[in-house]
Each structure stands twice: as structure tokens, then as C-alpha cells.
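Moderator note: this is an archived Q&A kept for reference. The question asked for a predicted structure of one protein chain; the sequence and the answer are reproduced below.
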Amino acid sequence: MGPTDQLRDRDPDMPAALLRVGAAKPKLAAGSGSVDEDQLIVRLQDGYDRLKQQVHQVIVGQDEVIASVLCCMLAGGHCIVQGVPGLAKTLLVHSIADALRLRFSRIQFTPDLMPSDITGADIIQRDAQSKKRTFEFIRGPIFANIVLADEINRTPPKTQAALLQAMQEREVTVSGQTHKLTEPFFVLATQNPIEQEGTYPLPEAALDRFMFMVYIGYPTAKEEHLMVKQTTTGRKHTIENVLDGNDLVLFQEIVRAAPVSDRVIAYCIRLARATRPTDASATSMVKTYLKWGAGPRAGQFLTLSAKAYALIKGRITPSFEDVKTISKLVLRHRVIPNFNAEADGVSVEAMLDDLLERIPVPK
């Protein structure tokens, strides 16, 4: 029984045009030929497992964090990793880049960083033959496949905004000229939540461009023991290249082409709308403790990431449980608490837990 037959058994309402990636016969890496949809899905799962295995060569534990970041990459989104210093946020991104044959750049955000330091700028150059001076565009570090925006909350909003166009349109405009970025393109930002001196919270417009916000916590006692043991012996762990850019672009196409029922889409939209205090479906906690809720992009990201999560778990189409699993990653940075929430000590996580309990799945 193929994926189409399995899906039709699970959801009779699903239209006949289910998964067309296999029908189009896209190619994998150069010279590998074309395969059907079953092989494509197996290739995606195998690539995800191998990529995760390589990252674990240097990262001890943090299974959920690694899975969330990789799921976000497969869905074609960008990610923020938030945690206190020393939890291997930067090393995580380096490890993923090392396991992929992709161009990697790291931007250390500081208060004096300028937008041109990210996007690049026109520089006056003198032609050796004609002796004339002309402007030449020098590309900045944003022109890479994987961009690490380290401590993104340490630079002013003017510089943070330099990422907006690149993250949304995959292009950069400088001096009226638009320059396309190379696919795949993935921004992973890190920020430290405990330091407020000299930091600039990301504007809501910038936060909304990120598909996931991942919280990274302290390791367990066993994981910390193993981490200290591995990092104090002088032994170096090497990471092999297991995938390339063609593989990653193909996997993102598979995720977008994967089928999803109207009921799951309706549930994603229902969750996003229920975070808005003025909406009729908002819970009492949302109306009391939230100033603003998630916008329409939340429903899009919930659907895309649920499809990616289902595929890496071996399911061809996402279920309501898949949406619930990734919902906090998508919603937590898109809702704004009000003064009542701060005064009563109600966290965003508690509001989202209450939301998931009270919002029913579509019948």
C-alpha cells in the first residue's frame, strides 16, 4: 500500500491530488536520477536521521532542541534559539552547517553594527585599464546558505531590520539594486534572555518572520557529566558532510507538496485566531492576559511545520497531535502579554497550555 492509499484510508475527505512530488520526478543529488514519492519520503527521513546523528557527535542531549531546529529547516523557515550562555547555541548551528555542504556565515551582533555590515555596500573601485572610478557591490555575510545571527538582541532595531527583506523575500536591496540570495537560505538567531543591559528586544515585525522560537534549557545531570567528560579530554569529534544544498531544497519541496486535510488547516487557523483577545474564539485567559495575538502568518507556519514534523516521524500527513506538538514553537513569540499577566505572574507558556486544552479540534 502506497502513501496515497494510506492517506485515503485515514482521511476520506482528502482530495485525489495528494502528493505530486513523485509525479514530477524531481532529481535528488546530481546523477542520482529520479524516484517515486515513496522513495522521496524515505530519503527525507533518512537524511533527517543522518543529519541529527552528526549533530549529536558534538552536542550532548538537547534532543528536542535539535529536532525542532532541523524541523524548521525542512519546513523552509527561520529559527530563534533562546537560552542562557554556555548551552551550546552557537555550536549547534556550526554543527548543522558542518554536516551540510553549504556556505555558512556568522554575524556577531553588537551595538555598533550597521545594516551595511550585514547586507553589503557599494564600494568605489578604480578600473585598472580605464582609470575610471565605479561603484562595485561587495556582498555582506547575509549572502550565505546558513546565517548565524549571534546575540541578535544586542544590536539596535535599525540593524535588526536589515534581516527582514532577506528572511521574507530571499533578496537584498542596496542602492536601488535587488540581489537574489542563493537557496536554501536559513537564518538561525540566538539571544540571551537574562541580560538586559545593552540589549534591544526584537520588534514584533522581526519576530514574526521567524517560524520557531526554541527554548534551550540546562542539561540533565547525566548529560552534563558526559558533556564535561567529552570536552576536557582533548579528543576532537569530526562531523561528516551527509547532505548538500540540493538535498535540502528537495526536502523543503516535499514538505510543501505533502498533503494536509482541511480539518487540520482549520485547526491551525483556529489556534491562531484564539490567541487574539478581540476574537470570539479567544479563551478567558487570552482576553485577560494578552494585549495582541498571532497574525495570519502563524496559521501558515503551523501548517507547514506540522507537515514537516509528520514526515520526519514517518507519517505522510499531519494530525491534530502533530499541530499540538509544534504549536508552542510557532506561537510563543507571536503573542504579547499585557500588564495584568506581568502583575499576576502568568507566563506565555501557561496561556498556551490553557489554549491547547480549551480549543477543540474540528469535527
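Archived answer notes: DSSP finds 17 helices and 13 strands in the chain.
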